[in-house]
Amino acid sequence: MIEKIIDLKDIELVNFLGIHNNNIQKIESAFPKAKIISRGNKISIKGNKVQLLEVEKIILSLIIHFNKFGKIDNKTISNLITNGSSNEEKEIIVFGFNGKKILAKTSNQKKIVTLIKANDLVFVIGPAGTGKTYVSVALALKALKDKSIKKIIVTKPIVEAGENLGFLPGDLQEKIDPYLRPIYDALQDMLPINKIKKYIENKTIEIAPIAYMRGRTLKDAFILLDEAQNTTPLQIKMFLTRLGPNSKMIVNGDISQIDLIKNQKSGLIDAIKRLKNVNGIGFTTLDSKDVLRHSIVKRILKKY
C-alpha cells in the first residue's frame, strides 16, 4: 500500500469536501481499494498504485473545477469517476505560479497549441491582447517542464522610438528590459521570481534582442520571436534559419502595428507570403474575438 498527499492550500474545505466529507466518500465508494482521509487542509490517499493514481487524478480535477465554479455537485463527481478528467483539465497547457492554471481560452488560442504539436515552426498573427505572447510562453514552459527541450530563447526586434539605445542610461540589459517587459510579465505569471532569476542566470531562459541570434544554431530549444512585424526581411530570414535540431519556434506579430521607418518592408509580411505553402510550417490568425483584456479593447480594435 502506498500513500499520496494532496495539499488543498486555501480552498474552502466545507464546500469542497461536502457535508460530512460526502464528496470524498462518493469517490472512495467507487474505488474500494483506496482509502481517502481528510486531515486539515490536506487529503491523504492510500491504496494500490492503480486506484491511487485514478483517485488522485479525480481529486486534482475537482480542485480545478472548484476553483473555477466555487462549488461541486453530484453530476461533476459522477462524470469525473466515469471519465477520469474534466474537459478543462485536458485544455491546461501548464500549471503556473501558485498552481495557477494556464490554458488556451479561445478556439484560436487552442489552434496554436495544436499547430505547435504538428509543426516545428508556427506563425501566430493577431492584434494586441489576443494572448499570442502569453500562450507561446506557456507552451515554452511546458516543453521545458516536460524536458523535451533544454532551454527557452525569447527575442524581439528592438525598434527605437525616438531614443538611441546607446544614449540611454544603464548597461545593455537595463536598456532593453523595457522592450521585453511583456515577456517578463508572462513569465512572472507562471514562475516565482527567484526561479525566473535562476533560469536567466544559468541560461535556461535567454531573453535578448534579435541581433544576438546572428551566427547561432539554436538546438534543443523552444524559441519565441515576439513583435515580428518590426523585423526587416533580412532579420527574419536570419532568425528563421537559426532553427536547429530538436527545436520548436513560434513567430508572433501584429501586422496592424508596424513601427518600422517609412518605406521599410516588414519581414513578417514578407515571410508569410514566401512560406505559406511550406511543409512543416503552421499559420494561424487571431482576431478581436480572442481579446481577453477589458471588453472596451475589442470595441477599439473594431474601429481600427
Envelope shape: elongated
Order of helices and strands: EHHEEHHHEEHEHEHHHEEHEHEH
Count of all domains: 2
* Helix fraction by DSSP (H/I, runs of at least 4): 40-55%
Mean pLDDT: 84
**Count of individual helical segments:** 13
Low-confidence stretches: none
Q: Which structural class do the helices and strands define?
A: alpha/beta
Total beta strand runs: 11
CATH superfamily of the largest domain: P-loop containing nucleotide triphosphate hydrolases
> What is the CA-CA span between the terminal residues?
63 Å
The major sheet is characterized as: 6 strands, parallel
Quick one: CATH class of the largest domain?
Alpha Beta
Radius of gyration: 23 Å
Strand adjacency order, main sheet: 8-7-9-10-6-11
